[in-house]
DNA sequence: CTGCAAGTTGAAGTTAACTTCAGCTCAAGC
DNA sequence: GCTTGAGCTGAAGTTAACTTCAACTTGCAG
């Protein structure tokens, strides 16, 4: 069992065969071919697919994932530290997303009490007259002043 | 200034006129018309738009937002407690999303140390042989057993 | 009254991330 | 060697949430 068929990789990774073909067209994963033109995946591809799935959970687009995967060495199977380096890249982004949602949660909790949701008064939908220079809309939550 | 033009509402809410027309077609907001067929928005629509923007941040689809807005009284302008009731609905969902991301962050932090990202061993991409009954893929993070 | 920014419409386009389809070929068990 | 499930391809379809376009109309300042 040196290599995997597309169906095997699909079951192992939890990603549909159609998605795996799509990832290959998009240059995210690679497959060799049998004499009969069927895909055969090296076991190392499992880890690439795992990386793709995790990065998607973090909220990274396939474009950026492709870019990250392109930075892996081509002449050898990536090591743990190669993967470690790549994973570290997403952590800051993930923490930012969590912070945004936590801020939203805290302010929404406050708003459940006051029921305002007012563009004039509510902290959630910060008043345009106080932050007019930053444009209208819920700036406070979406683009906090501290950032 | 009893009512707002579409341009005024756009500036006030931070939502593009095209999006406001789209929301109206989708039954999320309402506008009356002038003799010349131009939209005029009651100031109460500002709050509806604010609610839509916040719900989107929470990760709620327009379909669900429409459903929630449909539960507002039609015969009177919604009160603070009407809005409060609606906002409370999204809090649990928001907290779940935060929990998923925090779990992901914690495990990704661990994985940066080990660099594994392995479908066989890594906590992030839970082994199919241990949770085979729940299907393949990163079950541990996406659909935690406790749920 | 005129000019022109702002508004109107329906239809079509956009983006991401896939899925579905039709028509065909491959591979493995009996 | 036959059957049948698995795999192949390119093209088209899907969904959400809008945006863009073209052609036309309104409303208000001067």
Write structural notes for this entry:
The structure is a homodimer of 147-residue chains. By secondary structure, the first copy, chain A, is mainly α. The first copy, chain A, folds into two domains: 1-78, Multidrug-efflux Transporter Regulator, Chain: A, Domain 2 (Orthogonal Bundle), CATH 1.10.1660.10; 90-147, no CATH class. Chain A has six helices and three strands. Chain A has helices at 6-13, 17-25, 44-58, 62-70, 80-114, 139-142, and strands at residues 3-4, 32-33, 39-42. In chain A, β2 (32-33) and β3 form a beta hairpin. Chains A and B meet through α1, α3, α5 and α6 of A and α1, α3, α5 and α6 of B. The structure holds a DNA duplex (30 and 30 nucleotides).
Distinctive features:
homodimer; 147 residues; mainly alpha; Multidrug-efflux Transporter Regulator, Chain: A, Domain 2; 3-stranded antiparallel β-sheet; 6 helices; 3 strands; disordered C terminus; DNA-binding
- The CATH class of the largest domain in chain A, by name, is Mainly Alpha
What fraction of the residues of chain A are assigned to beta strands by DSSP? 5-15%
Query: Radius of gyration of chain A from the CA trace?
Result: 22 Å
Mean pLDDT over the residues of chain A: 79
List the chains of the largest interface with their residue counts: A-B, 56 and 56 residues
Weakly predicted, low-confidence segments of chain A: 126-147
The largest beta-sheet of chain A arranges its strands as 1-3-2
**Oligomeric composition of the shown chains:** homodimer
Secondary structure class of chain A reads mainly alpha
- The percent range for helix content of chain A is 40-55%
> Could you name the CATH topology of the largest domain in chain A?
Multidrug-efflux Transporter Regulator, Chain: A, Domain 2
What is the approximate shape of chain A? elongated
Helix-strand pattern of chain A, N to C? EHHEEHHHH
């Amino acid at each position: 069992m040196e290599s995997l068929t597309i169906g095997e990789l699909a079951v192992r990774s939890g990603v549909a065969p159609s998605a795996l073909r799509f990832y290959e067209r998009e240059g995210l994963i690679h497959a060799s071919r049998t004499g009969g033109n069927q895909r055969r995946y090296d076991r190392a591809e499992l880890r690439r697919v795992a990386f793709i799935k995790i990065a998607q959970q973090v909220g990274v687009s396939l474009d950026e994932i492709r870019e990250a995967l392109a930075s892996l060495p081509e002449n050898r199977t990536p090591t743990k530290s190669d993967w470690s380096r790549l994973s570290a890249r997403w952590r800051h982004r993930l923490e930012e997303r969590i912070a945004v949602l936590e801020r939203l949660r805290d302010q929404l909790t406050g708003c459940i009490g006051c029921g305002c949701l007012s563009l004039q008064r509510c902290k959630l939908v910060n008043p345009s007259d106080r932050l007019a220079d930053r444009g209208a809309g819920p700036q406070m939550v979406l683009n906090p002043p501290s950032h």
